Amino acid sequence: QQSGLLAYRHVEPGTRDGRKIQVAANMGSLSELESAQQAGAMGVGLFRTELLFMERQRVPTEDEQYEVYARLARAFSPWSVIIRTLDAGGDKPLPGIRLPKEENPFLGWRGIRMSLDCPEVFEPQLRALLRAAAHGNLCVMLPMVADLQEIRRTKAIIGRLAAELSSAGIPHAIPKLGIMIETPAAVLTADLLAQEVDFFSIGTNDLTQYIMAADRMNPRLAPLYKTGHPAVIQAIRLVCEAAKRAHISVGVCGEAASSPHMIPIFVNLGVDELSMSPNAILRAKKIIMEMPPPGEPGKG
Ligand code: PEP
Ligand code: MG
After folding, report:
1. Which of 6, 23, 140, 158 has minimal Cβ neighbours within 10 Å of its Cβ?
2. pTM for the full predicted model
């Protein structure tokens, strides 16, 4: 079956009404680079940087991070490579960073909240990203955004770091900046947030948990924890509409992005990019290519 799918390796799928859909890879380390390329990944839609911090038992240096990010940018050029800044906290404790014990870690000090409070972690990562951006189509993405100020503060830091790199004569470029849409607050203010960034990527794993108020790790809540639930679909619809109004691109990078019954729903809602584990990419391309034209019912 996989051999039949191989025909899709170089396919750049589109809908019958002519929209291109970018099918990209979710990655967590360079060890997945080859499998992503062999699967025909059209770039990287989510590079989770947590593993870089976990595998060393300490915070990786700016240069260590730069090597990884630059290698990815070069490997997939001209496709975009979206690197997510550190998403620690909640379910993701990290060695070398002291996370406080919290009553509600999923509602706690995590993602961009932590990064903005820890410049000694955030700034080396951003500097590494600015330097790597000189090597390809590198984009930076912020996790767990709930408030406009989180974006504005990050942009101010990026501006200062870029000026410092310029004065030091260090090659760099300003990457595109995007945010993950994972909180109900981001959904409900998507029009405002869209004015500040170049792209959205919907993190359906967390968005589902926060919209449904159902812990993504609790098996008892599995019947409620459904990305296909009308409440979650409505949230995704609002985000896609806001992205279209602002003329920015919108992707999905949660597990649901590779689900055969969710893919047509996302595509019909206007999603431009689906990012998933490399082993799901060929099947996703096939599913998109076989979708009936809009307005025509599928075979079910
Ligand atoms: C998500 O929340 O959907 C997502 C892609 O991020 P993570 O699974 O790393 O929290
Ligand atoms: Mg998430």
Report:
1. 6
2. 0.96
